[in-house]
Amino acid sequence: MKRFFEKYDLIKVSGILVLLSVLLTWLIPYGHFGGTEIVKEEITRVGLINFMQYGLLGIYYFTVLVTFLFVLGGFYQVLSKVSGYQTLVKNISKKLKGRETLFVVLTMVVLSVLCSLTSEYFPLLVFIPFIISIMNRMKINKLTAFSSTFGALLVGTIGSLYSQRIAGILNDVFGTVSIWYRVILFVVALGLMLTFALLNMKKNKTDKAFEEYDKFEVESYKSGKSAKVWPYIVCLCLLAVVTILAYLPWTTWNVTAFTSATEWVNKITIFGVPIFSYLIGTFIEFGAWDIFTIQFVLLFIILLIHWFGKVKFDEVIESFGEGFKKLSYVIVVLLFVYAILTFSLVFQVVPVMVSWICGLAKGFNVVFATVSAFITSLFGVEMPYVASLSGAYIAATYPEHVNVLSIIFQSVFGLLSFVAPSSAILMIGLAYMNIPYKDWLKYIWKFFVAMLLAALVLIAIMLLI
To answer: Quick check: is 378 in a domain?
Structure first.
């Protein structure tokens, strides 16, 4: 068992938080908020049967993320066996040789900006295996590659500008806060992460003990000299364009062109029959896609590769099985993360803890509000659930401080995303790249402290204004 947890330490650290969420149900009564009042009920202790029942229930609740990773793994496993894609990765790696710094900077900036804007941040994972393959061939060290990709998504989390999953939720709960406060968080986080990534890359530039980290390595397959690259450039560009357009918040920006175009397509008729609606179903406009929808795009591209890339259907099915196996550890870790959320939602002890903490002071107290945001973010996993567990209560209790509360919740949630075992993007990334949790903490703790100080300064300024 000791060797197992040494190898799969992410299961251990996330499992500890799962057990903590269960233990709290034995100590703290169930409670929920009714406006600005806490309604307490009896202690709901999670027993062994409850543990198994609700632990497995998380698979049902968050199936979309499991299928997304399954499809993503199959997609890149198919590509890794195609000579055209192999040649594309090798050619890009060769052309970028000597420009590692530029590539790291551009990758981090683009991914972090997209994450801060898009309505869903999980679909951005479709770009990362491709980027990781290039970085691995360029011999960019593992932690720098992680910071440039998954770390960039974490930057977009703490510096969320328009993302409906973070900034949008906060606006709904606390009201609209000046965008400039969020811009400051984003710029500081991006600057610090870039600094740490580039310093780490420089430090490990001459390290001969380079560790491979690409799960979809193309080296083991021989690329034909006449391999056609352009079809895969087209496919990847199509995937990039669709993903970006589909998840940007167009309605928030009052852009109605995609909504109008979608309504027009859905209403096209031939001899009075809405042919597209019958054949395809209701087409969803860009800006309103969910995580399921992008999976169909990945499957469609796979079909194109099967038809035009002369990849046998049996090989496609086999590759999906291999891809799922390669991401099995990632999926298990993800399920542990969402088991934390499942227990927190079904057996709600977090509201009782938050009510008790806020009640320690008469009126608003920034320290207690921050601690409340910390506890809720630790067990809430995603901002919509953080808001439902305590955000709405705190906003109603301290309506005169909603602006600063919005930044407190965003800062605390974003900071925890860099270190907490309940951070989905963090744990997916560490599992994907086989980075031990303690190694990541050794790397990121200085960034965490610096970002914490920056957030405290920003909050102090907001309180003084």
So the answer is: yes
Helices (H), 280-417: 291-308, 313-326, 328-346, 350-358, 366-380, 383-386, 392-397, 402-417
Q: What is the pLDDT along the chain (465 residues), one digit of tens a residue?
A: 566 656 678 999 999 999 999 999 899 998 888 877 888 888 888 878 777 777 777 777 788 888 999 999 999 998 888 888 888 999 999 999 889 999 999 999 999 999 999 988 899 999 999 999 999 999 899 999 999 999 999 999 999 999 888 998 999 999 888 899 999 999 999 999 999 999 888 887 765 667 888 888 765 445 445 578 888 888 899 999 999 999 998 888 888 887 777 776 666 767 666 666 666 666 778 888 888 889 999 998 888 888 777 778 888 888 888 888 889 999 999 999 999 999 998 888 999 999 999 888 888 889 999 999 999 999 999 999 999 988 888 988 899 999 999 999 999 999 999 999 999 999 999 999 999 999 999 999 999 999 999 999 999 998 887
Q: Please check whether residue 272 lies inside any domain of the structure.
A: no
Number of domains in the chain: 1
Q: Is residue 256 part of a domain?
A: no
Instruction: Tell me the DSSP string of 8-77.
Output: THHHHHHHHHHHHHHHHHHHS--EEEETTEEEE-------HHHHHHHHHHHHHHTHHHHHHHHHHHHHHH
Q: What is the C-alpha to C-alpha distance for residues 313 and 428, in angstroms, rounded to an integer? A: 29
Name residues whose C-beta falls within 8 Å of residue 90's C-beta, 6 or more positions apart in sequence: 137, 218, 223
pTM over 0.85: yes
In a domain, 269, yes or no: no
Query: Domain limits at 95?
Result: 2-249+287-464
